[in-house]
Amino acid sequence: MAATYLDAIGAAHRNRAQRDERDWRTRTTAAYSGQSFLSALESPDETVAVIAEIKRRSPSKGWLAQHLDAPELARTYEGAGARAISVLTDQDHFGALATDLPDVAGAVSIPRLRKDFTVAENDVLDAVEMGSSAILLIAALLSDDELDRFFRLATSLNLDALFEVHDEAEVARVVDVGAKIIGVNQRNLHTFAVDTEHAERVVASMPANVVRVAESGLRSTSDVERAAMAGFDAVLVGESFVTNTNPGEVVAAFSAVKRRARG
Fold first, then answer.
1. Rounded CA gap, 16 and 13, in Å?
2. Is 258 a catalytic residue?
3. Residue 72 lies in a domain
4. Which of 106, 63, 115 is nearest to 87 (CA)?
5. Residue 15 falls inside a structural domain
6. Where in the sequence is the domain holding 51, given as residue range(s)?
C-alpha cells in the first residue's frame, strides 16, 4: 500500500525523537491537576461535546489562519460553549508556534488536547509541561506496545488520551489497550476525501462505554447532526472554525446539537 501523509509526518517525528538526548526516566514532571478531558466530554448535558481546535496550517491546504491569536481564539471557543480545546503543536507541518499551547492553557479553564504525533515518552512529558490535559495517540502510527506504554505513562500523569482510529481493526486494538476516548478520522489517509459512511460503520463497532469523537470534515450543523445520529458523542473541529469570520457563532451552533440517546 502506498505511503500516506501520515507516514511521512510520523517518520519526521520519529527522526526527531531519535535525536532527542533527554532521558525521560530521569525527568521530573508534575502531574496534570485540572479538569480532566474525559470528564468534560462526559458531561451530563444532552448536547454534542465540541472540541474546538487551534489550527494555523494544513499539510494538504496550506495556511488556514497563519496569524490567529491563539489565546484570544481559545477564549472565544470557551465562551461559545466548547467543552475542550485542541491545539496543534507541530511546527514543521502545521505551522504551530511553540507558545500556542502554553498560551491557551493560561487563557482558558476548560481542558486542552495536545494535537500532535506522539511517538516517544518524552512527547507525553512535554505535553503535560506545556499545559495539556490530554494527548493524541494515532493507532495507524503506533504499535500495540507503544499505544500501551504511552497511555500508561499519560495516565500516571493524570493525562487522558484521545485514540485516533480509521477502521474497525484499529478500534479493536485501542479497546484492548483500555481506550476511554476514541476518535474516528473521517478523512481517507490516501485520498484526503471525507467518508462519513465509513466513519458511521466504524463508530458502530465501538463499545458503549467509550466516548466517541468524530474528526475531520465537519463543516455545517447538519454534518454535526449526522454525526450525532450515527452515535458520536463529540466532534473535533478546526478548519471550519479558524477560517470563519465569526467562529464563536459556529461553535455555539455546533454545541447546540443534541446527542443521540444511548441504549
1. 5
2. no
3. yes
4. 115
5. no
6. 34-255
> How far is it, in rounded angstroms, from Cα 59 to Cα 28?
34
What residues form DSSP beta bridges with 11?
Answer: none
pTM reported for the whole predicted model: 0.95
The residue from 55, 86, 180, 255 that is catalytic is 55
Report the domain count for the chain: 1
47 occurs within a structural domain: yes
Give a yes or no: residue 27 inside a domain: no
Helices (H), the chain: 5-19, 37-41, 70-79, 91-94, 100-107, 121-130, 144-156, 168-177, 196-204, 221-230, 239-242, 247-255
Q: Is 115 a catalytic residue?
A: yes
- The dihedral built from the CA positions of residue 64, 224, 136 and 31, taken in this order, carries a sign that is positive
Q: What is the pLDDT of residues 161-219, one digit of tens each?
A: 999 999 999 999 999 999 999 999 987 766 667 788 889 999 999 999 999 999 988 99
| Catalytic, out of 164, 170, 200, 240 | 164
CB 164 within 8 A of CB 137: yes
CATH of the domain at 119: 3.20.20.70
Catalytic residue among 53, 121, 170, 200: 53
Query: Is 164 annotated in the active site?
Result: yes
Task: Encode pLDDT of 115-153 as tens digits.
Answer: 999 999 999 999 999 999 999 999 999 999 999 999 999
Q: Is 180 noted as a catalytic residue in this protein?
A: no
Is 185 assigned a catalytic role? yes
In the chain, the amino acid numbered 191 is T
Bigger pLDDT: 8 or 73?
A: 73
